[in-house]
Structures are given as structure tokens and as C-alpha cells.
Amino acid sequence: MPTRGLRTRIAPLAVATALVGGLVATTTAAAPDARAAGGGYYLYFKKNTSDPINSKLYLMKSVAGAKDEVVAKYRAGSGNGSQNECATNKGWLPGTNTKNGKYKIEFHRTNFDGIINGHVIKLSDKKCAKGTKRTELFVHSEMKPNGKQGTIESERWDGTRDYYSNGCVKLKPSDIKDLFAKAGRYGWPKTLYVVK
């Protein structure tokens, strides 16, 4: 009888510990089974119609049966200030709802060497509302291929004006590095959604 009484007191404690342990794992290191049960992680780009270079990019966690959680939030720009999503190399990222604003994340790299460099997330091509196909769309910053700051303008972050881009989503270097660290820890998103 004393053994049963001890078991009765310990069992609720074990369940509470398991629940708290599961919550900690989900919020700090998200075990693979937690991501699968909750639907995983995704990026969410919220356009700012009054100031396109002061938009927001969120790393989100999908939670089954509950409101999705913000894991991280960053200031982001898209385009050269134009809200014409069909203007190639000028307008902001096409899409304004979950149907036409869904992008597949094709890859992510920390050492990309091209027109843009360093930490990049490659997005799928997208047709704008009028049918123009937008290509070479990335989430990126301004840095050298090795992730350090360079001496030429396209490899050096100078301030607010650097949020302008040729239609990609642009973050400051410290923010994209933080995004990569968090996505690496919790689980890499496979999708980016764009909304107004």
C-alpha cells in the first residue's frame, strides 16, 4: 500500500515533467517529431504598403490546433520602393495572399558566390498578377561570399538604404545570420508566404 501511494504521487509529477520537458524541447531545440506534429516551420513576409523597405520577415512555427507562433521577426525590404510586383528587378516580391504568395524554398547557403553573396535563401520563380515571370528571387543581405563585410557597395551594409533591392527580400547581415542560426536549430522552412 505505501508503494501504491508513492506511485500515485510520482505519476502526476512524471507527466508534468514530461510535458514541461516537451515544451522546452519545442521552444529551444524542436525535436523532429514536434515539427512533424505541429506542421514545421515557414517564413512569412508581411509587405508594408506605406514603406516597402520597412516590411517584416518572420520565422514561424506551425502549431497543430493552435495559432502559429512567431519564432523570430526581422525588418526586411523588397524592391526599390515600387509596389508594382510585375516590374522585373524593381518591384517588390509578387504575391499578396496564401494562394499567389506561396514560394517554395529551393535551397539555402552560407557561402553563395554570384550577383549576391554570402547567406542566401533561394525562392522559386513566380508569375505576378499580370503574368510576368519573376526569377532569381532570394532572401539575402550585402556581404562577401564568406559572410564578412567587403569594401565594394554590394558587399557592404551601410544602413537603411541597403534595404532596397532588385525585387528580392533583403535583411541586414546580422539578421540573416540570426535567421540561419535559428532555422538551423529549429528546422529549415520549406515555404515562404507573402501577404500585405
Topology:
Blueprint: H1 2-28, H2 32-38, E1 41-46, E2 55-61, E3 69-78, E4 102-113, E5 117-123, E6 126-127, E7 133-134, E8 137-140, E9 169-170, H3 173-186, E10 191-195
Parallel strand pairs: 1-10, 8-9
Antiparallel strand pairs: 1-2, 2-3, 3-9, 4-5, 4-10, 5-8, 6-7
Which keywords apply here?
196 residues; alpha+beta; L,D-transpeptidase catalytic domain-like; eight-stranded mixed β-barrel; two-stranded antiparallel sheet; disordered N terminus; peptidoglycan synthesis
Concise structural overview:
The protein has 196 residues and is of the alpha+beta class. It has helices at residues 2-28, 32-38, 173-186; strands spanning 41-46, 55-61, 69-78, 102-113, 117-123, 126-127, 133-134, 137-140, 169-170, 191-195.
Structure description:
- By secondary structure, this protein is an alpha+beta fold.
- It has 2 domains: 1-30; 32-195, L,D-transpeptidase catalytic domain-like, CATH 2.40.440.
- The chain contains 3 helices and 10 strands.
- The protein has helices spanning 2-28, 32-38, 173-186; strands at residues 41-46, 55-61, 69-78, 102-113, 117-123, 126-127, 133-134, 137-140, 169-170, 191-195.
- The strands form 2 sheets. An 8-stranded mixed β-barrel has the order 1-2-3-9-8-5-4-10. A two-stranded antiparallel ribbon has the order 6-7.
- The longest helix is centred in the N-terminal third of the chain and has 27 residues, at 2-28.
- This is L,D-transpeptidase family protein.
- Pathway: Cell wall biogenesis; peptidoglycan biosynthesis.
- It holds the Pfam family YkuD.
